[in-house]
Design brief:
The structure is a homodimer.
Chain A (H helix, E strand, L loop, with lengths): L6 E4 L18 H6 L6 E2 L6 E6 L2 E7 L5 H12 L7 E5 L4 E5 L25 E2 L6 E2 L9 E5 L2 E5 L7 E4 L5 E4 L13 E4 L12 E8 L1 H5 L18 E8 L11 E4 L4 H11 L21 E4 L1 H10 L1
Antiparallel strand pairs in A: 1-17, 2-16, 3-4, 3-15, 4-14, 5-6, 5-15, 6-13, 7-11, 8-9, 9-10, 10-11, 12-13, 12-14, 16-17
Chain lengths: ~325, ~325
Amino acid sequence: MHKPLVVLALAAGSMALAADDTPAGPATLADILAASIDTDWRTPDPADTLYLDLDGGRVIIELAPDFAPRHVANIRHLARRRYWDGLAIVRVQENYVVQWGDPEAESPERRRSLGEADRHLPAEFAVPASRVPFTPLPDGDVYAPEVGWSQGFPVARDGAGAENLAWLAHCYGAVGAGRDDAPDSSNGSELYVVIGHSPRHLDRNITLVGRVLQGMEVLGALPRGRGAMGFYESAGERIPIRSVRLAADLPDSERVPLQVLRTDTETFKRLVEARRNRREEWFVHRAGRIELCNVPVPVRLKPQDRDVAGEDG
Amino acid sequence: MHKPLVVLALAAGSMALAADDTPAGPATLADILAASIDTDWRTPDPADTLYLDLDGGRVIIELAPDFAPRHVANIRHLARRRYWDGLAIVRVQENYVVQWGDPEAESPERRRSLGEADRHLPAEFAVPASRVPFTPLPDGDVYAPEVGWSQGFPVARDGAGAENLAWLAHCYGAVGAGRDDAPDSSNGSELYVVIGHSPRHLDRNITLVGRVLQGMEVLGALPRGRGAMGFYESAGERIPIRSVRLAADLPDSERVPLQVLRTDTETFKRLVEARRNRREEWFVHRAGRIELCNVPVPVRLKPQDRDVAGEDG
């Protein structure tokens, strides 16, 4: 059995503490991950895995086709036609979002062709709750009657009943499709990532398409735009996009072998408990509760690939 | 009467929307601020106002002596002896904190003298609720029975009863005093600012001393440290501190005339309502609720000073 060797990123929540503490006791997050077994982890579908490459590093996104199938189809199409290559991050707003797309999107003459993706999509703000799995978090939520996880994504639901809906929650790390005033005006060509305190009031107002698995530190440290809403004021300030690719469109050797902890496992249940009641010595007050967006859903490199990489080195 | 001309910073929450929307209707945040009157605003005490100057810009902090009197006394002392000048930001952890202090703090030979502040302080994690004013937010909270504001600071309380306590909440923008494992091991010389999703599980585990009024974008865009817990791995990566000063120690002409919206006013009540139910045309779903750390407490330049500045130009 391979032990997990490296936890790459905690797309939500924080792994470390405020001072120079040392984890102690058996039930810390690190210990729980160390005791996890291979079947606790899943490998995201390469057709749902997007690499956003900037000069500063790579951002890896897992798309959520169960929640936004039409937007995900458009995004796959745009990645395949290399739509975003050479376009730019156009907006970085402190405590809010990083956003990228075509700076000339508003100009019919100068904007880049979207190919088959050139259509406004119906809003995909929520889906019937019965269509997606759900692992509840018992601690309540300010914004929704129920919250929890569906296949690794933080989600909210509006409660029991025939009309029960589920939607991806605007937690830190969420990826969404920018739109204009009309709800059906997005097409997936302009994407944003939440980089600050989770703006949950956006839930059910805009289509979320996935979440960042790795590379939040690349986005979070970008210079803030000084224009309205954090848009860069000049072309020279924009952050160029080297490329955006689907993992499925790359040879195996160029894919990053990430795995995500399954949120329907006993291991994840233990993890949530360890974050509700922190056992690390540093903590003197255990909250006994946790908010949805403060729970990390861990991501790691697949252990055997780590081993192979080790042998190569 | 002076109309408020500029809102400088919303230390929590976000002012703008996800797409290129235009505010419309009478009850947006911008409209409410435009209709505010001078008595809705207060000027923080210069003895409670700290300027952290970095090459990248100025960060202005309001200290909260009602919640952490001994830590604030130490911080004032340290600012007066120019303790932090030439020291550094030593840690920037994505979705967590920026932290500064003496990189040599652990070395008895090399560390900088703290003067009278060289003493561990009793933890100031909470105060009797009866000692501080309180404006409640009615929407509940995952972590505490009651939340709201006290003189502009987001706070939580543990409910009614003789033993009722109140504490500053770890919202985005909160400023705290780093400590070791012992609860009484902080002295205010090592400070941190929350730059990500609000880590409310730290509440009542560490002493908060205030909040950032202006300049979060300076801290949020700093390069992340690649060491454990976001510490910089080499001296060259650290961000030097030009100076830390109390506004009270500067001549009037060098103070920034900031004002903070009073949280015990009808204007603030209207603001909270406008954020619970967003009236801007872009929104199709109104949350009807809001989480404490998503409510902005606006900060502006004092209008007459803006006018004078305008006349000078």
